[in-house]
Design a protein that fits this description.
It contains one helix and four strands, in the order ββββα. The chain is α+β, with helices and mostly antiparallel strands. The structure holds zinc ion.
Length: about 70
């Protein structure tokens, strides 16, 4: 929401707020999501991200180990 100022410039009249982490809708500062649905979506996404980062960590460590073996440090 915006309002025209006296001299014609745009004046922001939006009270302090933040946006839903999933859909970007404006929400009160004490909340993270606009609805239960968005919260569930976020949790699901986080879970998937966590799983992927674990897979990548294992992958990175495995390739490092292979590299060390190939170089002959171990
Ligand atoms: Zn939302």
């Amino acid at each position: 929401m915006s309002k025209r100022g006296r001299r014609g410039e745009t004046v922001q009249t939006v009270p302090s707020h933040k946006h839903c982490l999933v859909c970007g809708r404006p929400i009160p500062l004490n909340r993270d999501f606009c609805s239960r649905i968005c919260e569930e979506k976020w949790k699901e996404r986080k879970k998937r991200e966590k799983r992927w980062s674990l897979i990548w960590l294992i992958f990175a460590m495995a390739s490092m180990a292979i590299l060390f073996i190939l170089v002959g440090i171990w």
